[in-house]
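Q: I'm writing a short explainer about DUF3263 domain-containing protein for a general audience and would like to include a description of its predicted shape. Could you first generate the structure from this sequence?
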Amino acid sequence: MSSERREPQAAAAAVGPAPDERLPAVLEFERRWWGAADGRKESRIRAEFGWSAARYYQVLNALLDTDAALRYDPVLVSRLREVRTERAEVRRTRRPGAAGAA
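A: Of course. Here's the predicted structure. Afterward I'll give you a sentence or two in plain language.
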């Protein structure tokens, strides 16, 4: 594939079944875990979906960019999009070697 960025729907399709088939399961799972400071989420992702945590977050992020997800649960999807944007901004503005930098 070229260096072009893939569209969100293409990214979602590249990681498994059609987005509309995964949408309810992924969003319901995320709703249950929203805000939980529980380290068991990764093991539950593996048990429920058979995916690594990295794959789950790829799918989730691709789904968040779809209109179908926004129609399914506008409050949850808007909140998750906002968190994603805030985290991206922190990564963009973080200085190497600064306190808290990974």
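A: For your explainer, you could say: Residues 8-92 form one domain.
Q: Perfect, that's easy to follow.
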